[in-house]
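Sequence in, structure out.
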Amino acid sequence: MTSPDPSQLRTTATPDDAERARVQKRTLRVVVVGQVLGGAGLAAGISVGALLAQDMLGTDGLAGLPTALFTLGSALAAFLVGRLTQRWGRRMGLGLGFAAGGLGAIGVVAAAMTGSVPLLFASLFVYGAGTATNLQARYAGTDLAGPSGRGKAVSVAMVSTTLGAVAGPNLITPLGQFAAGIGVPPLAGPFLLAAAAYLAAGLALFVLLRPDPYLLARAINAAAKDDDGGRASAVVPRPGGGAYAGATVMILTQIAMVAIMTMTPIHMRAHHQGLAAVGLVIGLHIAAMYLPSLLTGALVDRIGRTPMAIASGVTLLAAGVVAAFAPGDSLGMLILALILLGLGWNFGLISGTALVIDATVPENRPRVQGSIDVLIALAGAGGGAMSGVVMASSSYETLSLSGGFLSLLLVPVLLWTRRRAAVAA
């Protein structure tokens, strides 16, 4: 098979502004549907993955392993989804990515039922494809967006994730009861929802995302070069320096967020807080990760990428400090800490994504986006794996403070990048 020929899209390759706006609106509507479903799928691993591993492995020291596994899986998936998108478009990349995540969730349920730790590990790895695809779907809304609307386009995709992602953790108890009623361990219940949600998200995007926004954007760009008398080059252009700055922002915020978030359910259960409380804290955390996105996107477009990225580091530091000094039995303080944690991540992801989009062109964009999301996933895997080790050898307080201070490293990186860009100009 060969990649689609842009000439086949000639009837829509040079649409007028009204037609392009119409396609963009349709694309955003379809992305919203996929993100609502995808959000419900990703919440399962965040909410009960560590608890399920703790029960099956019988130790706290490896409780961060599920997060490490599905983030490692998401790293591979991000690479593959990026390459599939570069060749075949968003429909194919996102559709197959969500389908793989759904199959992984089914495998987790099977592992819990049989008590098979190897199957659990393998399934969590595959389940990570859903996480990567959910994250990559944010780019679909930006393919046809102009420079002044890219932050908003990212935010529309992200805020849609809130509906499913917040509902998921708060369904832990009823899903556990349902699972127990059909002979499935209660902690595997949320993965039943994840399987159905991811498979439905993949189907919706594959069927409805027409015309494919990336293929259309690439064809428009090629047509514009032809109109200007330019020739398509066989050499794919390199991304600008803003892509590296954006990647740094997203990587550091991912490490800090994943490390603290992963161990919070373990910390809460050690202080005799129940699953309902865990679901509330994680649900509000995920709401803070996604719900402010429309406002964040507008701020990123209006006051700039760099100021909002710096705000991310400061907010994550505040989250780490609050989590470290919150009493273990104080539900209110933990809620505040996890809300700040989600908000800081939100600032970092949207500003970092906008920096990457600004520094790329359609010819290299999906490949660069996929590669950066690989690094984000690997950073999350490292944060998840080390979080259990740090907490077992030290404390939740040490872990929280370390994550908060780590996030501040993005500030000098951003200032250095900005200074270099000013000198080059």
